[in-house]
Amino acid sequence: MTNMRPTGAALMEKLVSLCKRRGFIFQSSEIYGGINGFWDYGPLGVELKNNLRDAWWDVMVRNPPVGPDGQELQIVGLDCSLISHPRVWEASGHVGGFSDPMQTCRHCKKLFRADHVEELLEEAEWRKSLFDAVMEAPADPKKELRRWAEGKGPKLAPGLPLVQNPAAAMASLPTNVHGVPLFRVLLGPILPCPNCGGELTEARQFNLMFETFVGAVRDEESKAYLRPETAQGMFYNFKNVVDSSRVKMPFGICQVGRSFRNEVTPRNYIFRSREFEQMELEWFCHPSEATKWYDFWRTERFRWWESLGLAGESLRLRDHETDELAHYAKDSGGCCDVEYAFPFSGEKGFSELEGIAYRSDYDLTQHTKMSGVKLDYFEQEKNERYVPHVIEPAAGLTRGLLAVLCEAYTVDPSRPSPELMRFHPRLAPIKAGVFPLVAKDGLPEIAENLYKDIRRRVGAAQFDEKQSIGKRYARMDEAGTPFCITVDGNTKEDQTVTVRHRDTGEQSRLEIDAIVPYLRQKIGLE
Ligand code: GAP
Q1: Long-range contacts of range 329-333, CB-CB < 8 Å, 24 or more positions apart?
Q2: Is residue 229 lining ligand 1, measured as CB closer than 6 Å?
Q3: Does ligand 1 have an atom closer than 6 angstroms to the CB of 231?
């Protein structure tokens, strides 16, 4: 099959449109104009997201991997409240330090994350238009510039000094600079506003925590925060888990759930949003074994994403540079990211999907100091009491979903639906479409029974008897359904049905009773 899919922004445009049309993702509160950084998951999206979440929970908690010494790992789950005692976030360092540098435009008042300004400028329409104007008139750029400043400029970049006062801006331009250097002079030494070209303020730190108030009184005492990560619940419950379950060192605690960050510039669809879901593991171990476990989880997590089809050139594992390390990983030195080549990853080529950090004993020590409750561990075999060290694989569920969507999007003009989603069968929101070839002669009844059987014993299925078989295939291809099963005239004679495979379009004939075991095996349930 040929995949003639577009790339970059064109691919994102197509994907966003398919996701809306087929009910994967909607803008939150769309009928009110939407709210920036918040998204809703539609009927297909919620199935896909739950399947990704369940695949993670399955390899972490239900059937954890075998460790480097051949023993199955012990990992338990947790589900903590979204709002916790505010001191949790003082202990973790979020109240004091969870901030991004932010700049405000003096002209249009928009806010930008300082480290995003350059990238946003690259995409700004006014910047592209101005660049074209400068490049198109190599002989007399000043004439062209004045035309731009008085023509397109006021609409595209009303805050740019060149537009606000063309005469003064032109007078200050050097005479013999052309092309790209001239363009740079025009932008000035401090990058201008990506929205309107206006002057940006100095960068100020902006805390990303969402604040709220608990109870009837709204004052400093009642202030609380929506959690910005799921991790801290697993640290402040460390003693509860050790005391209430039979875990022994080394062991892990897992959590999947929502996190909230008041991102200055939420962007790239669901990649960076203000409300999102994370899947985090805190792996507790003896300090002397931390490096071994860090290496183990690094490999294991990369393999997991690979196993879901994000393989080959689109996935990589990258170690952090020393200046990138988070505060909790500064001393231990181990931090890496599983990265995916998202269509908007630009020059860097890849963006973070999951971070794997060696957090040392930072969090347990901080919570011990702040709460006064000792969060340590006594290992009987070693007759030793110690504060465990932690390895944390922290993945984005919603960001992972976006990677899965990007990877699955395929274009094949030879099909009834030129767009199809090639999801891994395990993740596909609908596992099988079941069709009677015609809506008569008892075929719908046979198909409906098979559909109900698949729904009960395999997973989500869809019964469809409307329109031509080609149109029904097309609907299933767009939804990413890996198998379509057609009940036809021969079924009544020989008890067989046609199975059509999404990725190849190939069809084979199977006995109707063999369908459920066949699907269970293909989907990885057996
Ligand atoms: N406990 C560590 C922690 O939260 P992080 O790198 O800030 O680490 C982990 O977040 C993962 O959560 C990221 O790799 C990313 O997949 C996801 N994530 C973080 N911020 C996000 C946002 N604003 N929108 C969507 N996903 C986000």
Answers
A1: 329/357, 329/358, 329/359, 329/360, 331/360, 332/290, 332/358, 332/359, 332/360, 332/389, 333/358
A2: yes
A3: yes
